[in-house]
Design brief:
By secondary structure, this protein is an alpha/beta fold. It has a domain of 212 residues: Rossmann fold (3-Layer(aba) Sandwich), CATH 3.40.50.720. 40% of the residues lie in helices and 18% in strands. A seven-stranded parallel sheet has the order 3-2-1-4-5-6-11, with helices on both faces. Strands 7-10 form a two-stranded parallel sheet. A two-stranded parallel sheet has the order 8-13. Helix 7 crosses helix 11. The radius of gyration is 19 Å and the shape is globular. Bound molecules: UDP-4-deoxy-4-formamido-beta-L-arabinopyranose. The site of UDP-4-deoxy-4-formamido-beta-L-arabinopyranose has 18 residues, from helix 7 and strand 8.
Length: 337
C-alpha cells in the first residue's frame, strides 16, 4: 500500500512516516520545506532503514497536485498534515492561512474523488472546541467559534471533508490532537521550531539549553489548582501510532461512518507549572521562569475524554508526561550538540 503523507517532513508528519514504515507501508512524502528540512529524510532513514519517496511541491499549486497524482496513481491513502499552524501568525495574516490550509485541502480532495475509493486522515485540533464547557472533552462537545484563523481553517477543513465524503468514495477520519510534545527515542527526529518557539515545551527545552533567558509563564490567575493553564500533553510517538491505526481502520473498512472523529490525548490535564516540574525532574536542572500576564486567545483548560479513541479506534496513549519531557530534552541536547 502506497500512502501519501503531506507535511511528512514536519514534526508530527515525520514521526508518522516512521510508524507507517514500521508497519510495512510504502510512503511518499509531499512537503514544500516552508517549515521543515530535507535533512529530516536522513533521520527517518536512520530509524527505519528505508528512505521514503520525497516530492518537493506546494499543495497550493493545483497543477502540481494533479501531476503528482498522475505520477503516483497507486496512492489510495492520504494522511494530510501540511498546513500553517502558528495561531498568532494566523491572526496577522489570515489570507495566508485560508489559502494554504484550505486551497491545498480542496486540491487534494479533488484528486482523490476521482479514485474508485480513497482513505483520508485529517490533522485536526482540539482548538475546534475553544474553551469547552465540560472536562474531559468528548468528540460531541460543541465546536465553538474559532479563536483564530488557524483554528477556523481546522473547522472549515472538517466541514469540507464531511460534505465531500457524503457524495464521493472518500472515507475519512478527523483526528483532533491535544498538545503534541516530545521526540522519537532515537533522537534522529524531533520538533524543530523556526525562530522563537510559540509552544511551551520547545521554549522550555531551549531555555534549559540556555538559548532563552527564561520562560514566561502566561498567567497564574486561571481557575485551576495552581493558577496556570491546563492542557493534555501527548507524546508525538503515541500520536503518530494513532494515525497508522486510523488509516488501517479505513483500509480494512472497519469505519462505522463515512467520516469519524477522534480526540487524541492522554486524558490527563497538566498545568504549566506541572510541565516545568516534569522538566526539572527529568533534566535535573532548575528552569528560570517569570509569571507574566495571560496570552491573548489562550483558554483555561483542555484535556481529552479518551473513551472513544480507546474503545472504538482501539488506540491508547502509553507514554507519560515525564517520558515525553525526557525525550524532548534529549532531542534538544542532540540538536544543539
Ligand atoms: C500551552 C500552554 C500557554 C508558551 C497551540 C494550538 C494548538 C496546537 C498546539 C498546532 C498555554 C502556556 C506557552 C510559553 C507559556 N497547535 N505557555 N509560555 O496554545 O495550548 O495550543 O499549540 O497544532 O492548535 O492552539 O499550546 O504550547 O502554545 O501553550 O506559559 O512560552 O503553555 O499559555 O497555557 P496551546 P502552547
Amino acid at each position: 500500500m502506497k500512502v501519501l503523507v503531506t507535511g511528512g517532513l514536519g514534526f508530527i508528519g515525520s514521526h508518522t512516516v516512521v510508524e507507517l514504515q514500521n508497519e510495512g507501508f510504502e510512503v511518499v512524502i509531499i512537503d514544500n520545506l516552508s517549515n521543515s528540512s530535507e535533512d529530516v529524510l536522513k533521520g527517518i532513514t536512520a530509524i527505519t532503514g528505508k528512505t521514503p519517496i520525497f516530492e518537493k511541491l506546494d499543495l497550493r499549486e493545483k497543477s502540481a497536485v494533479q501531476n503528482f497524482f498522475k505520477k503516483h496513481n497507486d496512492v489510495t491513502g492520504v494522511i494530510h498534515f501540511a498546513a500553517s499552524k502558528a495561531v498568532g501568525e494566523s491572526v496577522e495574516q489570515p489570507l495566508l492561512y485560508y489559502e494554504n490550509n484550505i486551497a491545498s485541502l480542496v486540491y487534494l480532495l479533488q484528486e482523490l474523488q476521482q479514485k474508485p475509493e480513497a482513505s483520508f486522515i485529517f490533522s485536526s485540533s482540539c482548538t475546534v472546541y475553544g474553551q469547552a464547557e465540560k472536562m474531559p472533552i468528548t468528540e460531541d462537545a460543541p465546536v465553538q467559534a474559532a479563536m483564530s484563523p488557524y483554528g477556523n481553517t481546522k473547522q472549515i477543513g472538517e466541514e469540507i471533508i464531511i460534505d465531500t465524503a457524503k457524495v464521493t468514495n472518500i472515507s475519512a477520519i478527523l483526528l483532533r490532537y491535544f498538545n503534541p510534545i516530545g521526540a522519537h527515542s532515537s533522537t534522529e527526529i524531533g520538533e524543530l521550531p523556526l525562530g522563537v518557539p510559540q509552544n511551551l515545551v520547545p521554549f522550555i527545552t531551549q531555555t534549559g539549553m540556555g538559548l532563552r533567558q527564561e520562560l514566561s509563564v502566561f498567567g497564574n490567575d486561571y481557575p485551576t489548582p495552581d493558577g496556570t493553564a491546563v492542557r493534555d500533553y501527548i507524546h508525538v510517538v503515541d500520536l503518530a501510532k494513532a494515525h497508522v491505526i486510523a488509516l488501517q481502520r479505513l483500509f480494512n473498512k472497519k469505519n462505522l461512518q463515512k467520516v469519524e472523529t477522534f480526540n487524541l490525548g492522554t486524558g490527563t490535564g497538566s498545568s504549566v507549572l506541572e510541565v516545568i516540574n516534569s522538566f526539572e525532574k527529568v533534566s535535573d536542572k532548575k528552569l528560570p521562569y517569570k509569571i507574566m500576564p495571560r496570552r491573548e486567545g489562550d483558554i483555561t483548560e483542555a484535556y481529552a475524554n479518551t473513551d472513544k479513541a480507546n474503545n472504538v479506534l482501539g488506540w491508547k496513549a502509553e507514554l507519560s508526561l515525564d517520558e515525553a519531557m525526557a525525550s524532548a530534552w534529549k532531542w534538544e541536547q542532540k540538536v544543539r550538540s
